[in-house]
Amino acid sequence: MISSVRGPVLSIGLDHAVIEVGGVGFAVLATPTTLAGLRRGDEAQLFTALIVREDSLTLFGFTDPDARQLFGLLLTVSGIGPKIALATLAVLEPDKLRAALSEGNTAMLTQVPGIGTKGAQRLIVELRDKVGALTSGTPGPEVSADAELVRAQVTEALLGLGFAAKAAEQAVDAVLAKDGARDTAAVLRQALTSLGRKR
């Protein structure tokens, strides 16, 4: 998993920046706020989440690990893809997003393009407790958030490979419950092995 990139900013677009790492330019999708903090030619570091699809590998960049964790948590909610997750963080800063989820504020969540009332309610139901755990400051929840990020990425990869959503989620959950692996590639391999036996 590519968890961060660091290097000179080659270019900045409306929705992405290109950062050179070891002679290779990585296109990283990011929020307008993140992009506004970058300057062409300056060195930058972004914490990243790699989303694997059948036809693409896409990097999403964030200024801090906290925003990246929230991005990963958003992806665990049914119906929330990477673009809506990024749009959520573009509209609501991490603290505001946590507050909206903790307080059950659907009005604030529906400000995000692509999230209606039902979607907002689903976000609240599925993430309220997880976001509360993230804000408690105890070491355990951070591991949980990392696991959620791995879960989201591996599930996305399996969906891209044509597996049904429910089967993919169950396979990933079974792998994480069994050995608590945090390495995306290892979890993906084990989930694929499990799904292959069922076919």
TrEMBL record:
Keywords from the named record: ATP-binding, Cytoplasm, DNA damage, DNA recombination, DNA repair, DNA-binding, Helicase, Hydrolase, Nucleotide-binding
GO cellular component terms attached to this protein's record: cytoplasm; Holliday junction helicase complex; Holliday junction resolvase complex
Entry-linked SMART domains: HhH1
Stored HAMAP family: DNA_HJ_migration_RuvA
UniProt xrefs under SUPFAM superfamilies: DNA helicase RuvA subunit, C-terminal domain, Nucleic acid-binding proteins, RuvA domain 2-like
Family: Belongs to the RuvA family.
Localization of this protein: Cytoplasm
Comment block on domains: Has three domains with a flexible linker between the domains II and III and assumes an 'L' shape. Domain III is highly mobile and contacts RuvB.
Function: The RuvA-RuvB-RuvC complex processes Holliday junction (HJ) DNA during genetic recombination and DNA repair, while the RuvA-RuvB complex plays an important role in the rescue of blocked DNA replication forks via replication fork reversal (RFR). RuvA specifically binds to HJ cruciform DNA, conferring on it an open structure. The RuvB hexamer acts as an ATP-dependent pump, pulling dsDNA into and through the RuvAB complex. HJ branch migration allows RuvC to scan DNA until it finds its consensus sequence, where it cleaves and resolves the cruciform DNA.
Region described as Domain III: 153-199
GO function term, MF aspect, one: four-way junction helicase activity
Pfam families in alphabetical order: HHH_5 (PF14520), RuvA_C (PF07499), RuvA_N (PF01330)
One of the protein's GO biological processes: DNA recombination
Signal peptide positions on this chain: none
The UniProt record lists the keyword Magnesium: no
InterPro entries: DNA_helicase_Holl-junc_RuvA_I, Hlx-hairpin-Hlx_DNA-bd_motif, NA-bd_OB-fold, RuvA, RuvA_2-like, RuvA_C, RuvA_C_sf
Record text on subunit structure and interactions: Homotetramer. Forms an RuvA(8)-RuvB(12)-Holliday junction (HJ) complex. HJ DNA is sandwiched between 2 RuvA tetramers; dsDNA enters through RuvA and exits via RuvB. An RuvB hexamer assembles on each DNA strand where it exits the tetramer. Each RuvB hexamer is contacted by two RuvA subunits (via domain III) on 2 adjacent RuvB subunits; this complex drives branch migration. In the full resolvosome a probable DNA-RuvA(4)-RuvB(12)-RuvC(2) complex forms which resolves the HJ.
Protein's name according to its UniProt entry: Holliday junction branch migration complex subunit RuvA
Domain Helix-hairpin-helix DNA-binding motif class: 72-91, 107-126
